[in-house]
Amino acid sequence: MKNIVILISGRGSNMEAIVRAGIPGARIVAVIANRPDAKGLDIARGFGIEAMALDHKTFAGREAFDAALATEIDRFAPDLVVLAGYMRILTDDFVRHFAGRMLNIHPSLLPCFTGLHTHRRAIEAGVKVAGTTVHFVTPELDSGPIVIQAVVPVLAGDDEDSLAARVLLQEHRIYPQAVRWFVEDRLRLDAAGRVELLDAPTGPEGW
Ligand code: GAR
Q: Where does the record place the catalytic residues (predicted)?
């Protein structure tokens, strides 16, 4: 059984998709938010998962908060830490501590549109496809080795909300997939920091 801790900041729909996927061999041991009002906390509790907030505003700074958060996460002895709409920049120490066992999802086709407001920027740039990326977390924001991506069209008349909704459907598909691969011991980083996926799918499952 692999223990998974999920970090959220808000709605928690990706967290919910992972929980609902019911991945064999995975146990979601805790959901932690950096905001006490994160809606996803109640969703997690509804599934009987231990859910708590560690309010970043009550800490002196980023280093102090991330150190406390790492201690809190370690209590659950996680094999994998999943960032699911976790909207905080991470300290290098925090990233190093969970190196090779921390995944993030970003709502763009990385390496395009790192950072915030991805959908608005995609529409402004006039791109014809958009999408989402699951990647291992490295110190540089939204830049770690890519595990899986999904592509959606950008349609005439799309606004930020309609594009975000189309992308989100794909997020809910590929994030559980990436977690499943990790739990099955098929996904890891090699010594050079590249993604290794055993028995990589050749069909749509791997897009
Ligand atoms: C998702 O679209 C996720 O990709 C994005 O925040 C949303 C969270 O939704 N994450 C980032 O932008 C991280 N850079 P959720 O709380 O419903 O899962």
A: 106 (proton donor)
